[in-house]
Amino acid sequence: MTDLLRAGDARFVSLRTYRRDGTGVDTPVWVVRDGDALAFTTPDGSGKVKRLRRDPRVTVVPCSRRGAVEPGAQPSAGRAAFVDDPAEAERLTGRFRARYGLEYRVFLLVERLARRGRNSDRVLLRVVPA
Fold first, then answer.
1. How many domains does the chain contain in total?
2. DSSP secondary structure string, 53-121?
3. For labeling, which of 6, 21, 77, 104 is most exposed (least CB within 10 Å)?
4. How far apart are CA 112 and CA 18, in angstroms?
């Protein structure tokens, strides 16, 4: 098993995406393992989605809900791809619901209410080792 897949055992991982100037931006995200990849979900239109549409390189490292990374934790490099197939997206959404349960559903409800009328769609990403 790769280090990237081991990171999927954590409840959250810090996902690093890259700005145009190469600066990394770390964000804690929900994660599930999906075969030989990790899957993430995030609001469409977020900064990380914009950065990933331009540059699919990422690094992941286990973290806390707030993004704190344990000292000595080693990041793993990967490449992200958007999940466009509706059936695949529904299957992965089910995996998130199963893993995070009520916590996930409550979070999505709060997110939807907070976005009031703005795009509340979420995208799904699969990350494979680089």
1. 1
2. HH--EEEEEEE-TT-PPPTTPPPEEEEEEE---HHHHHHHHHHHHHHHHHHHHHHHHHHHHHHTTS---
3. 21
4. 27
- Domain of residue 77: give its range: 3-129
Query: In degrees, to the nearest 5, what angle opens at C-alpha 91 toward C-alphas 100 and 74?
Result: 55
Prediction pTM value: 0.86
Block residue for tokens 């992941």:
60
For residues 97-113, give the mean pLDDT. Answer: 81
Under DSSP, the state recorded for 1 is -
DSSP state of 19: -
Helix (H) or strand (E) run with residue 3 in it: helix 3-7
**Which residues, other chains included, contact 126 with Cβ-Cβ below 8 Å and sequence gap of 6+?**
34, 37, 38, 39, 80, 81, 83
pLDDT in tens, 6-62: 999 999 999 999 999 999 999 999 999 999 999 999 888 899 999 999 999 999 999
Q: What angle do CA 84, 87, 91 make, to 5 degrees?
A: 105
